[in-house]
Amino acid sequence: MREGQIQKVPYLLVIGFNEKDNRTVSYRLHGEKDTTVVGLDEFVEKIVDEIKNKVH
Question: Rg of the chain over CA atoms, in angstroms?
Fold first, then answer.
């Protein structure tokens, strides 16, 4: 987590046994302290939407 913050990685993901069993992803946005837990499919959809709507 610390290394990701230093490198300013936009999303830091945590995928452990609980996430695997529940098909969820825990993530934290760069610069935020709170972690969000969402379904894996919802997270993938969020990232795909962000990529599609990215301003060049």
Answer: 12
Model pLDDT for residues 7-27, shown as the tens digit of each residue: 677 888 988 999 999 999 999
* Total number of domains constituting the chain: 1
Which amino acid, residue 33? K
How far is the C-alpha of 21 from the C-alpha of 37, rounded, in Å?
Answer: 13
Domain that holds residue 27: 2-52
Rounded Cα distance between 29 and 8, Å, is 10
Which pTM was predicted?
0.74
**Measuring CA to CA, how many Å separate 54 from each of 18, 28, 31, 35?**
32, 20, 20, 23
| CATH number for the domain that contains residue 14 | 3.40.50.800
